[in-house]
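HUMAN: Mind sharing a backbone?

ASSISTANT:
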Amino acid sequence: MTDAELQQVANEVRQAILDQVSQTGGHFSSNLGTVELTVALYATHSLPPDVVVWDTGHQAYPHKLLTGRLPRFPTLRKHKGLSGFLKRDEHELDNFGAGHAGTAISAALGFARARDTLKQDHRVVAITGDAAIASGMSWEALNHAGIAGTDITVVLNDNRMSIAPNVGALNRYFNRLRSRPDLQAAARRAKDLVQRLPGPAPRLAAGMRHGLTHYFAPEETGTLFEEIGFEYIGPVDGHDLPMLLEIFRNVRQLPGPVFVHALTVKGKGYEKAEADARTWHGVGPFDLQKCEFAAKSGGRPAYTSVFGDALSELARRDERVVAITAAMPDGTGLTEFANEFPDRYYDVGIAEPHAVTFAAGLAAGGVKPFVAIYSTFMQRAFDQIVHDCALQHLPVRFIMDRAGLVGADGPTHHGTFDISYLSFIPGLVQLAPRDGTELRAMVDWMAGYQDAPTALRYPRGSVPEGLPEGRSPIQLGRAENLGVPGGEAESVAVIAAYGSMVDRAWQAATKLTATGTPTAVINARFAKPLDAAMITQATREHGGLVTVEENARTGGFGELVREALVDADLAALPHTVLSLPDRFIEHGDQDKLLDENGLSVDDIVNAVRNVQKQARNS
């Protein structure tokens, strides 16, 4: 295809993103910024056998469109439709799954070394972003690739506005020169020659070459990448399609690791998104012509905003309270805190392991750190939780947003394992609120608990309404018996629910009570230490038990309860664990996913009736 035809392809890809994401929602501004980059890369490479690995997936809609998925694009992020991220089982050219940041360079290096081991001949490209490249794993992979001298291309999609002025005529000319293989070969021959010269000549020549290079380049961005073994090309205009085509054609011919630094504009081609890329990063459906989002009803507040308000209130009373996030201030509710307490707020970037150990140091130094990270991303810092926090009994306070099923973002973002992977860490306290009021109370309680790390989980979405107003104070390891809906009948069955599932358990108990089976609900509050006394006593009195949680079964709340029943010699009594199944759950509507995976109100009702039947027959 000619350059003009490829530009038309780019225009059509951008329009498809505009048309579709305005209807379905999704990651918007990042994808608009990678259109020309993707078209140029795919026009100059042969896919397959060439391999392209995308980081995170926020920027991969053009990839999906260019690999034949336009007919399915209206199903984007819908149940059983296209994923919003990369999935190996969705398309053969989704070479490596993505959803968490910082994985592309490591994976691409693995592809490249596999190619070399199998004596194959194709190119491998990793595309990463300016946030993802700051993660520790990205730098570990760059260091490895540079030392190994592997033939691999790393493309940095840099959409930070602050360096856009560095794109200019001199850079265009200089980058074309640096990407030409004939000049690269000449440079290698010159380098070999000067290294044979005696005395200080090699050092002088190297210094002259370095000085001339960075005289012509107005920014010294490339120095670091060159020092670790990469040929650096950039920064280049990531929207200049003819120049990108020329650069990628030339880069294909270069041996060894090559780093292409492309400057892009988030939201390119949509004025509102260009002006406010942060707001337009991830969007719901909106009016494309009016540039307006659908009006939100003034309903219940989100758990996220309740936490943010609670932490800010706490910080006003206690100057030792500090907040840490890993590049997610909006998503974790810390924007207000950051604005009000800038000296007590830390955004460490996409560096969850560092965030946790940094918080451990803060705790050891005498302050009260709250680390707000999505449940799925907390997995990335497991060793730091164990070694740096729990082992040293440091009171780091983990706030895990998006615990449970998150909806359209799917399996890479579901937070379905945190109860399990934290439950066997000695001393670590796990707790979860039933509603917004209890969330506030738990945040206050955590601030005063100084004996060990604590981990609080809550789901994506709004806080529930309709649960009993009366409540007991938060005490370590103590549950709350909510009783029977209506409060008049004596219970004949009992449900123990944890966190987000208390609401559905209460709805089930209401339905059961109305149909002649008065059912009590225990709000567990703590998974660890578990209120074994209350739960085992209730099981004994009712002849059985149903537990409900929004987590994987293995190592989860239900299994912790089951251990308590065994210890109390109650294992023979009928009991049922309702949890998420032992599989990765796909994307879709949050409530529908819960219903489809065994956690509907009717599932809870049926489980209670089955336990009652078993109890009568035993």
Q: What stands out?
A: Residues 480-617 form a domain with the Rossmann fold fold (CATH 3.40.50.920).
